[in-house]
């Protein structure tokens, strides 16, 4: 799909410097620009590339004045970074502009489907499923019985939505996710073996939740595993049964959250964090990467370490960790002098 610079400037409320009828059909980094591509410049560190880029056009701040001749056209806007982000949103919307039900696919006769949905080929929609307006379900998606999906959701290829899951509006579920898998519940027997504890609950994803690729969210033993409004989960995260994650909390890749843990709202949790079961993490908590959390954390804390403790204390301690060999040498010297 091609767009003229004039059309793009109209979308971004910008001004073209150069030929407004030139056309672009792809986006690129400024240092990797090629003919027909559109890039942007916002970070001064990349200014030199505007004089060498092969991009057809570059979005720049309206205060930008070139210091030497440039070959590309310019689209001048108030904020080039924000403008390029807006353009990415348009681009993504164009990619998602699909509708209709592709074949082969299976939709049970009891399914309730609203208007303007897209269902990709080889998808399976089980009985008593309810699908809202504007939902995009890409190929090879499995949706089990009694699932409810709100309006304007996007479910990418290969995702599995298990029975009784409730999904709100404007939720994004990326490829390979499993929502509502059996929780990890086993009880020990006298002979050392384990018996499976049935997991009879479900998963609830509230509005504007975004789930990264290959992330798994287990169904509750009883009740619900709940991901509150606006939560953003990265790729390859494990959320166990009966966990609750508060509004607008963001969690990075490879974090594992054990059963019945409660995480507050507006938390920022780094990658590879381990969170023990049956604990409570307060609101507005920051957890640095690779931390291990085994006890309750108060509101507004910022922690690091394994087991995690106060972030400032951890940094001060780390200075000593690094210097342990030197400290040991000094201690041995002091001991030697004392003995002498």
From TrEMBL:
Keywords: Acyltransferase, Lipid A biosynthesis, Lipid biosynthesis, Lipid metabolism, Repeat, Transferase. The active site is at residue 241. Pfam families: Hexapep (PF00132), LpxD (PF04613). Signal peptide: none annotated. InterPro entries: Hexapep (IPR001451), LpxD (IPR007691), Trimer_LpxA-like_sf (IPR011004), UDP_GlcNAc_AcTrfase_non-rep (IPR020573). Coiled coil: none annotated. It catalyses: a UDP-3-O-[(3R)-3-hydroxyacyl]-alpha-D-glucosamine + a (3R)-hydroxyacyl-[ACP] = a UDP-2-N,3-O-bis[(3R)-3-hydroxyacyl]-alpha-D-glucosamine + holo-[ACP] + H(+). Pathway: Bacterial outer membrane biogenesis; LPS lipid A biosynthesis. Residues 23-89 form the UDP-3-O-[3-hydroxymyristoyl] glucosamine N-acyltransferase non-repeat region domain. Catalyzes the N-acylation of UDP-3-O-acylglucosamine using 3-hydroxyacyl-ACP as the acyl donor. Is involved in the biosynthesis of lipid A, a phosphorylated glycolipid that anchors the lipopolysaccharide to the outer membrane of the cell. Belongs to the transferase hexapeptide repeat family. LpxD subfamily. HAMAP family: LpxD. This is UDP-3-O-acylglucosamine N-acyltransferase. It comes from Nonlabens ponticola.
